[in-house]
Amino acid sequence: MHPDTHLVIQLQSLDQRIGALDKEIAALPKHIAILEKTLESHLRRLEADHAALSANQKDRKKLEGDIQMHEQKISKLKDQMLGAKTNEQYRAFQHEIEYFQREIRTAEDRILDLMSESEPLDVNVRKAEGALKEEKLAVASEQKLARERTAEDQAELAQLRTERAELASKLPPATLSSYNRIRKKWNGVVIAEALAGRCSACQIVLRPQYLQDLKRGEEMMTCEVCGRFLFYNPPVNFEDIAHAG
User: Fold this and answer.
1) What is residue 229's three-state secondary structure?
2) Model's pTM, two decimal places?
3) Domains in the chain, please, with CATH?
């Protein structure tokens, strides 16, 4: 095996870890943004329910005021009716009283409807307030964890990038250039093992002479089809190990 093979394998491993950390660091704010957006939508829904409940109570209060006003008018009309001098005046007062009595019944019916509407709305508001309180705590906890995880990731990332720079400096410039080109082409998978006469990455059979050259390990070689670096690990002979022991 060529000496640079181990460096390429280590570099690939570092780059994969760096890539995973970069993705995690980028994903954490998105995850928090989704939670915050959901929380915001729940807040808006609760505000709408509060507004509906407030409007309901306002309408009931107005109707109750209207009833009180109608009752006062009826009381005055009854007093005036006592002084009516003709049947026409008496009937006129009576018609007015009946009109305000109908208005009172209409208002009372509407108040009953509003009370019926407010009961489930009030229950929903109370439930939503409790759920929202828990959700706020959960989101705050997630935000804290995300900040801590991001700080840890960034610290590890800085260390890994330092290690990568040191490792990359040990490779010949031409090999490093090829490494970067292959990494970009194959999404980080730069090197593959030759197994059973095939490239383990693209599964294409290697030419016999090419495989023999690869086994000698005199130079860094790439797959003739996919272009990835290749390495060959000779099989372990357990009998030789046993005899050596």
Assistant:
1) strand
2) 0.67
3) 4-169 (1.10.287.1490), 173-244 (no CATH)
